[in-house]
Amino acid sequence: MADVFSLAGRSALVTGAGAGVGAAVAKAYSAAGAAVLVTDVDKDAAAAVAAEITDTGGRAESCALDVRDADQAAQAAEQAARLADGVLNVVVNNAGVIAPAMFHKMSPESFQLVLGVHVGGTFTVTQAALPYLPEDGTGRVINVTSAAGLVGTIGQVNYGAAKAGIIGLTKSLAKELAKRHVTCNAVAPLAATAMTENIRNNEKLAEMTLARIPLGRWADPDEIAATFVFFASDAAAYITGQVLPVDGGTVI
Ligand SMILES: NC(=O)c1ccc[n+]([C@@H]2O[C@H](COP(=O)([O-])OP(=O)(O)OC[C@H]3O[C@@H](n4cnc5c(N)ncnc54)[C@H](O)[C@@H]3O)[C@@H](O)[C@H]2O)c1
User: Fold this and answer.
1) Residues of 133-159 as b/e, b for ≥16 C-beta within 10 angstroms?
2) pLDDT at 1
């Protein structure tokens, strides 16, 4: 049974993998047997995570990838495919930014920035990866959405729009890629990372947020990463077009 979760012989490209959820996913993929291309707009952060993986006996490379840059995405997809004989099994579109502001104060620039990184980046990186995705049932596109895209969040019209956009992209792409036997799903996490530091460090916000999490605690990014292993593995071969919250019950 354990073998259905194995990623041995597979390759994976993870965006925004220099920190937080992405770094945890890259390490979990390596632990499950995959060769991993660790990418991030922060090149040094990506290199540090790749070094951690290789230092513990895993196979990883890194590169700078701003997910909005189609040329960098094409190079990254090729590099990731080289890790596994020209095939890129798993693409994780995890890179993300936030720029919170109440709607009446939100600048058009911040709206475009957040849409561009999340929806635009997911589009750009997945399109670059497409030629390398295998058609043998092991191809996976795993996107990252949020409770903000499912139920909305005050002060995050840009982020909510972007994360809802990713859900629509995921469902439509799942239908298109099904004929290639490639699945496309999305995870909606909640975790203690740099992205949530401002909330966790603000007593009032932290208390309000915890009150909305039925399990009553923040997850470590490693707990979130296990779900990405599941979606990448043979265990999830018959699941596509789905959004799975991994958020302690925040969205029920
Ligand atoms: N942490 C949470 O509770 C939470 C909740 C819902 C959704 N998410 C989503 O999970 C994903 C990971 O977030 P995290 O919490 O690990 O955040 P994080 O801030 O710890 O990490 C985000 C990473 O993305 C990278 N990045 C930013 N812009 C980029 C770009 N243009 N190109 C490439 N990389 C870029 C950053 O350098 C960073 O390493 C994001 O998509 C985020 O929206 C997180």
Assistant:
1) bbeeebbbbbbbbbbbbbeebebbbbb
2) 65
